[in-house]
Structures are given as structure tokens and as C-alpha cells.
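Incident review: delayed structure delivery

Summary: a single-chain prediction request sat in the queue longer than the usual turnaround. Root cause was a stuck worker, restarted by the on-call engineer. No data loss occurred. The affected request and its eventual output are reproduced below so the record is complete for anyone auditing the incident later.

Affected input:
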Amino acid sequence: MSRKSPRSRRRRIILSVLLVPALYLSYLGVTLVQTLTNPAYGVTAMARFAEWGRGHGLTSEVNWAEAVWYRLHPTKIGGLPPKGSFGPNTSTTTTPRTGHLSPPRPIAVVNPLPGEGLWHAVGRTDIHHQPAVYEAFVRPDTTHTSYVVGLAWMDTTILNAQLYSGSYIPGHGPFTHTAPISPVNSTSLVAAFNAGFRMPDAEGGYYTDGHVVPGLPLRNGVASIVIYKNGHITVGMWGRDATLTKQVASVRQNLALIVDAGHPVAGLSSTDNTRWGATLGGSAYVWRSGLGVTSAGALVYAGGPSLSIVDLANVLARAGCVRAMELDINPDWVQYSIFQGAPHQPVSGSNGKSLLPSMLGSPSRYFASWWARDFVTMSLHP
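Output delivered after worker restart:
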């Protein structure tokens, strides 16, 4: 039997040592390519790389790269938004039929521009031509005056809500309702919008299909979207405004309420980018979205650029919300779509429009099998 020489043994040891990092780098390369080519991780390459980096121990490096990008693209101060940003200069509200909610009142705005804060009917109507959704547009504050926030007011006496769950958020499927929206379910679709943070960041739980998603128990005191089996939807503090009963179909929790009793809650800070989500580049003024409910039960969505958490809360309170919560943040994830179509006929992404033209991604994401995040649909009552 021949013995291997010391030189041969050293060569094998060196090759073994080099093989481990080579295999790891190959793994990183494969996962990076998979992430960069998967639209479920973001509309932009920047968002996809950030998702990949934070999932592979490169959070500090990603934060540094984003901070550099934001220094090169600072939030604008002053100025005016593009002409036509607020829609028609007169409101187009309709007197409701008996049993429906009164249309929303104009949003209070200091020194409003023409059309700012006025509501306009959009999207499909019910069989009596009653509008189910109104949209309005305002500037976020008196400093970032070239930006526009979009709001959608939804009549919950006309609309049913449904939570769609994804393989990425919350994970642990399969689920009864998940993307894509089916042709049958699209026949009454009026609107769809993004849900909240990734579950590790949401500080709350997730309930749907008759059970709590594994590892995501519902927590008292957390802001929650609550959808009942009859399609009714509300926003509130779990354990105070809603509890788990046999009538509850879905619960999606995300952080704490930002509006309560009709006012922004104490402790919100316009410079806080930790408590209210890791934002691109560490900026507190970024794309944000939120959801609230009025005293009459209407649902109100708000989303737009250059929003601090204080601005988001103020806008929702000015729109009449008595309770409201933050949904998702950063440009790739803030999306509200409104759909048009003949009664009882299927629609697709081509029948939709974004609440703001500057929202990244299109309404088609909700009709794509690759869309792996949760979202909410609003559809006409049967």
C-alpha cells in the first residue's frame, strides 16, 4: 500500500479549504440571480437586491447603499405638483340610496390648490349606479408641496372585502384566496390594495382560513385589519375594538394604530424610521400607505410619496378616520388599483388604473401567479 506524500495531503487540504467559500459564493450567486429575476421581490432591481441582501446577512451594506442613493436623490422642499394632479375642480359625489353611506366631505386643506381635497366617484358602481369608491388628492404637508397623496374612500355597505394571502407573506400556505384573482372573482372587483409589512417586521399575527398562520399568533393591542365572513371590514386595536369570534374570516396585524379617537396618536415622530419601518436609505420621508375607518364605517386608504408617519396619520385623520393604521412602505409596495368593467363581466389588470400614476407596478400584479405578497380586494356585494 502506497502512502500519500505530505505535498499531496497539503494540496487536498488547500482544495478543501477553498471549496467551501467557492460553494458558498456559488450559492449566493444563484440566489441573487433568482431574486433579481423574480418580480415578487420588487418592481425595481434596487428593491429586489435589498430584499436579497437583507435575507443574506448584508443589511448594513444594503442600508449604506440606500443611504447613498437617497443623498443623491433628496426629498424636494417647496414647489408645486404637476397640473391636473387633483382631478376636476368640482366634486362629483352622488346622493346615496337608502341604506348606503353618505359620500365623503371635502378634506380640509390650508390654502388649497384648485381641486385639492375634493372627492370624485371612480370605478365600478352597483346595480343602481351607486358609486362604491371615491378618490381625492392632497399634498402631504406644507413643506413637501410638490408631492401628492392619493386617497380612496370606500362604501362598506356596497363592497365586500377579501384578504388574499401569499406564499412569501405570510407564507405557510396554501390558502383559499391567493394570487392570481380568478376570472370568477373579478366579475365584481372594484379595488385592490397592498397589505402590511413582512411578518417578521409587523410585530403582529395573521389569521385566515379558520386558523392562525404558524408562528404568527394574534397579539392584543396591535393595529389590525379585520374582515368578517359577511365581507364587512374594519380597522381597530385587537382585543379592544375586535376579538376572534366565529364571524371573523381574516385578521392582518401591523404595528400599532396611528390614528385613534379621530386624532393622530401620541408619540409619532416625523424623524422616526425605526418604529414605523426600515425605510430606503434611512429616510423618514418615503412612500407610505395606510388604512382607516370612519365613524360611519367607510374604509379610507391613503398612499403616496414623501410621507412621514406623522403626515400619514394627519392625512387619514383629515379624511375623517377615527382609527387608522400604517400598511406597507417604500415605493415598490405601495399600490392601490381601481377597476372598471361591464357588470358581471371578468376584468384583468388592463381594466385597472393606479390611484396615483407614479405608483410603481401595475394593477396586473394582482392577476399574476408570481405575486407572493398579501393584499386586500374590495368587490361589489353579490
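Verification: The chain has a mean pLDDT of 88.
Action items: add queue-age alerting; document worker restart procedure.
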